[in-house]
């Protein structure tokens, strides 16, 4: 595989070098959060600081160090056998930007309804009864961060809210 050189703050390096930091690419920030990843503390510093401020409100008294936040997220996103860990919640309790699973389909909560997710963008919109229990793709701590007011970037295919 050819590795592409990238530049950031005047530094150049190849992507996907074995044994090194792994770059992750997602459709949008809501997708990255659902996968249990926080904003980068270096290349997305302002977003990270907003995220960490909301995190502090959700986890009062806990460490705000990046490694400690990452450990919490890892425990919430990975279950036994290394599989994606799902949590349960009522649909009405979920803030915009949350992602849920239903069968083989991922959905994003937005404006009181669900948008079908794909790696290429969001598709059809559908309503969901508020009392319905859903399987969360977004880890509970990140749900808390979203409830605390952190607004993730959402791909333009979401349409008009």
- Label the structural class: alpha+beta
Q: Provide the spatial order of strands within the biggest beta sheet.
A: 3-8-4-5-6-7
- Report the end-to-end length measured between terminal Cα atoms: 40 Å
Number of helices: 4
What would you say about this model in short?
This protein is of the alpha+beta class and 161 residues long. The chain contains four helices and eight strands.
Structure description:
- The protein is 25% helix and 24% strand.
- The mean pLDDT is 87.
- It contains 4 helices and 8 strands.
- The chain has one domain.
- Helix 2 crosses helix 4.
- The longest helix is centred in the first third of the chain and has 14 residues.
- It is α+β, with helices and mostly antiparallel strands and 161 residues long.
- The strands form 2 sheets. The chain has a 6-stranded antiparallel sheet with strand order 3-8-4-5-6-7. A two-stranded antiparallel sheet has the order 1-2.
List keywords for this structure.
161 residues, alpha+beta, two-stranded antiparallel ribbon, 4 helices
Topology (elements, then pairings):
Layout: E1 5-8, E2 11-14, H1 29-34, H2 45-58, H3 66-77, E3 87-90, E4 99-102, E5 105-110, E6 113-118, E7 121-127, E8 133-136, H4 140-147
Antiparallel strand pairs: 1-2, 3-8, 4-5, 4-8, 5-6, 6-7
Helix pairs in contact: 2-4
């Amino acid at each position: 595989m050819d590795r592409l050189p990238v530049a950031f703050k005047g530094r150049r390096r190849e992507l996907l070098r074995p044994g090194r930091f792994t770059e992750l690419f997602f459709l949008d920030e809501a997708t990255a959060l659902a996968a249990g990843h926080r904003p980068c503390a270096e290349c997305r510093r302002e977003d990270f600081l907003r995220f960490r401020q909301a995190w502090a409100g959700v986890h009062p008294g806990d460490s705000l160090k990046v490694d400690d936040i990452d450990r919490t997220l890892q425990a919430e996103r990975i279950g036994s056998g290394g599989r994606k860990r799902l949590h349960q919640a009522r649909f009405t309790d979920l803030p915009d930007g949350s992602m849920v699973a239903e069968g083989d389909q991922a959905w994003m909560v937005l404006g009181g309804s669900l948008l079908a997710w794909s790696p290429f963008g969001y598709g059809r919109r559908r309503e969901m009864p508020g009392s319905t229990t859903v399987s969360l793709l977004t880890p509970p701590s990140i749900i808390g961060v979203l409830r605390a007011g952190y607004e993730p970037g959402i791909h333009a295919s979401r349409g008009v809210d």
